[in-house]
Amino acid sequence: MKYKLIDKPQFVSREIYDKVTDKLISKLTSNTNVISIYTIGHVGNPGISDIDMLIIVKDNCIVADNFRVEMSGQEKYLFLHQPYACSESGFKKAETFSFFHNYNLVHGKDVRTAANLNTTEIEILKKQTALEFLLKMYMQLFVQKKYKILRVRDLLLHGKALIYDLEFLNISSGNLFLLVQKVIEWRKDWFNKSPTDNELIEWFDSLFLELHLQFTTNKLFSEISFPESKTYSIAKNIRLKAKSNKFKVNHSGLIVPLLSTISSKRGVKILNKFNFFEFEVPSSIIQTSSIITERFESEAMLRSYGKQFLPHFLPMTSSLHLN
Fold first, then answer.
1. What is the distance between the alpha carbons of residues 33 and 61, in angstroms, rounded to a whole number?
2. What is the pTM of this model?
3. 259, pLDDT greater than 70
4. Cα atoms in the Cβ-side hemisphere of radius 13 Å centred on 223
5. Which of 53, 73, 216, 236 has its CA 20 to 30 A from that of 29?
6. Any residues with CB less than 8 A from the CB of 62 and at least 6 apart, and which?
7. Which CATH number fits domain 14-116+303-309: 3.40.50, 3.40.30, 3.30.460, 3.40.960?
8. Does the structure show a pLDDT above 80 at 318?
């Protein structure tokens, strides 16, 4: 069965990005509980890049607006997910443990502070953050490979983000590094000279195999910590069994080939209802670092607070959302 490639990038001008960003900022600034608004990162590749926004609100104030549900199709294309949000006091902790970069204050006061961490703590946090993102990426690739449906723009977005994880792990050569460099090159000139479907499929298969190899043979990739030895819910149909004996994936369900012909994300949503994945992940970490334990506790608090006060925003937590 051949792969079906969906959600290919559509060109959008920088002017549209600015217009969509300004529209949401205007809505947010009318709320007196909003203290600060930041955009995160920059639009490096219009039509591929998405918009990341962070909202800081007053402590213990509910902001229940669901801004994304009201957006047009084009606006949702640029805002792939809900904005991030955090209380002012919660941000002081979240900022310490996150590695967001290129903060751009677009409204209110700058509430950022310098993280009070030593070099060793920063290196420990970087490694944990990178391994979590790489594991989440592997999960996404595994599901797409099983369904034979490749979400192209998603692969381009997350593929580029891998460069930061490799930097955190001090990986600057080898097959994995070269594969990430390839997707970065593609993004630069995508709308003038994009790769063929076969080239994308070959890259996808190579990235999947390389990540599988790293998680099954590379000692560094087993140096991931978990709050507890238990099974975590990553998504409705995805579980993570932490501190297992070996790295493996269990899949159960029904793959209906016809669903791969359904356009866009609809087929994926249907397949998700009938398929279940459990990723068993070992860990060579015997004693969890105190800074990692503190991060797990902080993230649990941020997620709990978010559910109560900021229900339609994303918390500033790791990509795996372990709790």
1. 7
2. 0.94
3. no
4. 13
5. 73
6. 308, 309, 310
7. 3.30.460
8. yes
